[in-house]
Amino acid sequence: MEQKKLGLIGKNISYSFSKKYFEDKFQRLMLKNHFYDLYDLQDISEVENIFGNAGLSGLSVTIPYKEKILPYLDELSDEAQKTGAVNCILIKDNIKKGFNTDVFGFEKTLLLHKKDSHDSALILGNGGAAKAVQYVLKKHNIPYKTVSRNTELNFENLTAETVSEHPLIIQCTPVGTFPNVDDCLDFPFEGISEKHLIIDLIYNPNYTSFIKKAAEKGAKTVNGFYMLEQQAEKNWEIWNI
Description:
The protein has 241 residues and is α/β, with parallel strands linked by helices. It has helices at residues 18-28, 47-51, 78-83, 102-113, 128-139, 160-164, 209-216, 225-239, and strands spanning 4-10, 34-40, 56-61, 75-76, 88-92, 95-99, 121-124, 144-147, 168-171, 197-200, 220-222. A hairpin with a 2-residue loop joins strand 5 (88-92) and strand 6 (95-99).
């Protein structure tokens, strides 16, 4: 049986969950001819060398390349097209097709925890992961505002009052990710109450400074681990089409 080579492209990804996750999976399924490698790229242009690897059938894509990868692909799924972000690539018959399985993972997380009262949202950040969140909120008719450095509503002018009016808050920036676990967004936590659902897409550490501060205000908090598992499973499904 021929080898199946998979991998992850990103930057500073030695801490990545994906390699261990998939290697454990190969072991459980007794797939001795499957391999999952980390490709730590300093620049997205280096991806061309990776696409040249014989036998490569799929890649996961993480920060900061979810949007920058698009020009290197031949086709995009509907979600990837609409979000303008890709975190999964299928390489088949020399065609590189991009998918956005963050959409699938976030939707499952949201529906697991959301109550009817969580009817309007703030999305913190405006990168590739935030695009998946926007897509899912639109699909479920949940109005949202984006808070980022380059949007009208930003971390300088965000008030506690605005926070209190949006019971669903999704943290999509990398601020607070391992190893910088003490870092936290400049955020008016006094606007958070027990009515809030806070989803932080970071999974390492389990509890970011952001989640801890929100939990102190009585909010329900969820990290990114379930979303990560769900998108990984979806990637696996796509690579085995």
